[in-house]
Amino acid sequence: KSPRSPEKIRTSIISEDKNGFGGKSHNFSVRIAFDTPVGEFSFPCHLFIPHSNKKCPLFIHISFDLSSGNVPVEEIIDNGFAYSYFCYTEVTDDKDDGYTSGIAPMYGERNTDSSYSWSKISMWAFAASRMLDFVTELPEIDIDNVAVIGHSRLGKTALWAGALDERFKFVISNNSGCSGAAIARESMYHDDAERVKRISEVFPHWFCPKYHDYSEKETEMPFDQHFLLALTAPRYLYVASASKDLWATPFGEYLGCVAASEAWNLFGIDGFIHPDRYPIGGDIFNLGNIGYHMREGTHYLGRYDWLRYMEFIKSKIN
Question: Which of 68, 152, 187, 261 is catalytic?
Answer without folding.
Answer: 152
